[in-house]
Write a structure and sequence with these properties.
Mean pLDDT: 95
Number of domains: 2
Structural class: mainly alpha
Number of strands: 0
Oligomer: single chain
Helix content: over 70%
Radius of gyration: 16 Å
Order of helices and strands: HHHHHHH
Length: 159
């Protein structure tokens, strides 16, 4: 039987908790500058703690990179968002992730290219994300993805 130390349990708990806190701020209608800074730190902390968890899987890293990219895109931290989106797609390809994770990898590139106002690249990746989203096998996952894909901002790149 694999017993986890208190530190290992704490890292998994914090990875999950920081992810939840990031989403709470992402969903907040009016964020302060302090909220924006906290959101960035929570997203990065979530990935850090997942990497320290005994339950860490490649999908945790891919999804952590995606979340950081999403936060930075929304906050218009353009080049850094694109950097994390490229990490997301690289991890997706390296670990041959499909379905839900592939669709989100494409979405991260579409949104980060939109944030840097590269309309052509954004449209290419958005189309790939939409097609991959249609292939998601679980209906609940498909619904979640489609909701996220429709959610802005898209920085006037999808008109």
């Amino acid at each position: 039987m694999n017993k986890c130390s208190d530190d290992e349990k704490m890292h998994q708990y914090m990875g999950i908790e920081m992810n939840i806190q990031t989403w709470n701020l992402l969903m907040k209608k009016k964020r302060s500058e302090q909220d924006d800074l906290r959101m960035i730190m929570f997203a990065k902390s979530s990935l850090y703690h997942w990497k320290k968890s005994t339950n860490f899987q490649p999908t945790n890293e891919q999804r952590g990179e995606w979340l950081i990219s999403r936060v930075l895109s929304i906050l218009e931290k353009r080049e850094t968002a694109l950097f994390h989106a490229k990490n997301t797609i690289a991890l997706t390809e390296k670990h041959e992730l499909k379905d839900f994770d592939l669709a989100y990898a494409y979405e991260s590139l579409a949104r980060s290219y939109a944030a840097i106002k590269n309309k052509d690249e954004s449209k290419i990746w958005y189309k790939k994300a939409k097609q991959a989203g249609e292939m998601i096998s679980d209906n609940k996952d498909k619904e979640i993805f489609n909701g996220d894909l429709k959610a802005g901002p898209w920085f006037d790149c999808l008109d």
